[in-house]
Amino acid sequence: MKESYGVRLPGLELDDLTGKLIVLEGTDGVGRSTQIRLLKEWLEQQGHAVLDTGLTRSGLVGKGIKRAKEGHTLGRITLSLFYATDFADRLENEIVPALRAGFVVLTDRYIYSLMARSMVRGLDPVWVRNIHRFAPKPDAIFYLRIGVDELIPRAVFARGFDYWESGMDLYSAEDMYDSFRKYQTALLQQFDQLAEEFNFEVIDARPEPRVIFEQLKAGIERILAPPVPRPTLTAATGALEALEELTVQEAPEERRKRA
Amino acid sequence: MKRYGDHRIPGRLFVVEGIDGSGKSTQLMLLHQWLKAEGYGVVFSEWNSSPLVKDTTKRGKKKQLLTPATFSLIHATDFADRTERNIIPLLKAGAVVLCDRYIYTAFARDASRGMDPEWIRELYGFAVKPTVAFYFRVPLEVAMKRINDARAGFKYYEAGMDLGLSDDPDESFRLFQSRILEEYDKMIPEFGLTVIDATLPIETQQQEMRLMVLAKLTQAKQLRVAP
Question: In this predicted structure, what is the pLDDT of residue B53?
């Protein structure tokens, strides 16, 4: 059972989705991908099928966005819409089908990052929220929160300054360091507002990865159904029958009707 | 971010709308020739032509990857790029900008594909309101005959084949385009579209268009390029 933030897309039913949608949000370099990797492994060990996904990976526009960003010529409205197109493509072709098949979908960023970036670039908050209203509401949103001072060594020492992560399209007169500071500070402010509006579970991202991982695990355990009981010799027959029944009932039907 | 109707810029924006085969592109070309000859700084912008976006759209159409949602969003992206990079700066500089298809095309097509009409209108909320939006109204049969005379068959998305209305391209085109005509009719009062009867002789339509454009240009003498 899922619902969107208010806009229904034709042919995309959300009310028969049995999987769980789990979002990791946070700014650049905060350690999201490390956590996704750990969580995927852990969830699979628990018997859950996992799809991990992120921004600009769609088959339709992923390449187009990369090419356009290389030229540094994208306007801010254009960039927002390009990302929204990419998101819609992944939603329809990856996320929703996986949720329909009962997967746990772990997504590295979601519409909130897209909204924060657009608003930092001065776009109308009402307009920005509207574009993303077709997104399904996640089962949980974990926000890995960090201050800009702690962020700098992590994001920068490891791989240097990135043009877009430093917001150089916004503050081109500054050097990369000053620009990065300003941009990331503005982003963090937006995230803090979104955290309240969309009920993020805030997790302090300063401790070492293992500590954060334990917190995320605890949060995810709360929303997942209890794991499949380990089959034992005595219970095996009964459990198998129960499983068969389940598969018959929940056989995912192809419900992508065209309007 | 300025919204529809809030832009205060010296240039003039004229757009043409209508279904395929309505003759709108021919009319816009004739208007363009005349404005150039009159010495105006004129720039032409076509639907779906952004150099950054159109390859993605083309690939999506060719491989039939587009759903109503991504069809809508990729066209909005294309339009945003042209608006941010061309239309707004040119209008600020005092140019006459001519657009073959504008946001009303998206409203008509996307609503016909089942997208939420209010959502689409807000999506395009950044668009500049045209000085005049001409709508070339034509009965479906006339438009279909014109297209068939000019080229062989309808294109996949143009005929709305993605909606599965009919396996026959002609029938699908008819069903899809009649939905679009209904959407256009609803938009005439909503956006104050200027209706031109597209069954009239080409010269008559052009005459009407030029009179209306001229009325908007005389209010803005500074548009004329110095000889």
Answer: 82
Backbone angles phi, psi at A75, to 5 degrees: -75, 165
Q: Which of A11, A73, A75 sits opposite B80 (nearest CB)?
A: A75
Edge-to-edge strand list for the sheet holding B42-46: B42-46, B96-100, B12-17, B132-137, B194-197
Nearest-by-Cβ selection for B1 from A59, A81, A124: A124
- Write down all domains in chain B, each with its CATH number in brackets: 12-218 (3.40.50.300)
Q: Measure B218 CA to nearest chain A CA, in Å.
A: 33
Q: What range does the domain containing A106 cover?
A: 20-250
Give the angle A48-A50-A56 at the CA atoms, nearest 5°. Answer: 165
- Decide if A81 is inside a domain: yes
Q: Is the dihedral of CA B203, B207, B213, B214 positive or negative?
A: positive
Task: Decide if A2 is inside a domain.
Answer: no
Q: pLDDT digit string (tens) for A73-100?
A: 788 999 999 999 999 999 999 999 999 9
Global pTM value: 0.85
Average model confidence (pLDDT) for chain A?
A: 85
What is the total count of domains within chain A? 1
Q: Which residues of B touch A (CB under 8 A)?
A: 1, 3, 50, 52-53, 55-56, 59-60, 65-70, 73-74, 76-77, 80-81, 83-85, 113-116, 119, 122-123, 125-126, 162-164
**Most B CBs within 10 Å: which of A14, A79, A81, as the mutation test of the B interface?**
A81
Q: CB B122 to CB A81 under 8 A?
A: no
- Chain A nearest C-alpha distance from B71 (Å): 9
